[in-house]
């Protein structure tokens, strides 16, 4: 495991962490956005945030993957809020210039692979923010309920209740009600 106290100042430690986690972060982002340029920018932003906040990681609070998903969730949510208000980040333009056709094709393939997940996200709009956050971290990102609770800063019991509600609501929405037809 990477020594987090070194990520912000040691390029080798950061590179090791990046190589270990970049695919998971790209999958996380691709499930939430449908523009390959934005997906590349947000993935880069997640790792920039990791460099800036690596000193806040506390090993006694859990594993680094959970912490990383918390950082990624905050970065993606922040961007979606900015986009909703019509703001554009100048850094996205510079990031796009660094992508070659192979990078774009790989991101488009990830985005296409995540299209069903985006359809589920549309159904998830009926959930509260808290229910949706727990469901995403547990069902999509593979965290345990306890790890999701810690990533969200809530109690495990609260996370279990939110997850139960979210699953019930998603099941009710995705599985059409069957009606008995009598002759």
Automatic annotation (TrEMBL):
Residues 118-169 form the RNA polymerase sigma factor 70 region 4 type domain. One of its GO terms (biological process) is DNA-templated transcription initiation. Pfam families: Sigma70_r2, Sigma70_r4_2. One of its GO terms (molecular function) is DNA binding. Keywords: Sigma factor, Transcription, Transcription regulation. It comes from the Bacteria. Belongs to the sigma-70 factor family. ECF subfamily. This is RNA polymerase sigma-70 factor, ECF subfamily.
């Amino acid at each position: 495991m990477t020594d987090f106290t070194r990520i912000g100042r040691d390029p080798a430690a950061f590179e090791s962490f990046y190589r270990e986690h970049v695919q998971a972060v790209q999958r996380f982002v691709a499930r939430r956005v449908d523009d390959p340029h934005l997906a590349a920018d947000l993935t880069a932003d997640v790792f920039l945030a990791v460099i800036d906040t690596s000193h806040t990681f506390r090993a006694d609070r859990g594993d680094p993957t959970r912490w990383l998903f918390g950082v990624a969730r905050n970065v993606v949510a922040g961007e979606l809020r900015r986009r909703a208000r019509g703001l554009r980040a100048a850094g996205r333009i510079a990031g796009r210039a660094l992508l070659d056709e192979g990078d774009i094709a790989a991101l488009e393939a990830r985005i296409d692979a995540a299209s069903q997940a985006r359809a589920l996200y549309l159904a998830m709009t009926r959930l509260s923010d808290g229910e949706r956050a727990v469901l995403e971290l547990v069902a999509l990102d593979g965290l345990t309920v306890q790890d999701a609770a810690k990533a969200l800063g809530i109690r495990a019991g609260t996370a279990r209740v939110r997850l139960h509600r979210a699953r019930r609501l998603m099941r009710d929405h995705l599985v059409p009600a069957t009606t008995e037809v009598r002759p």
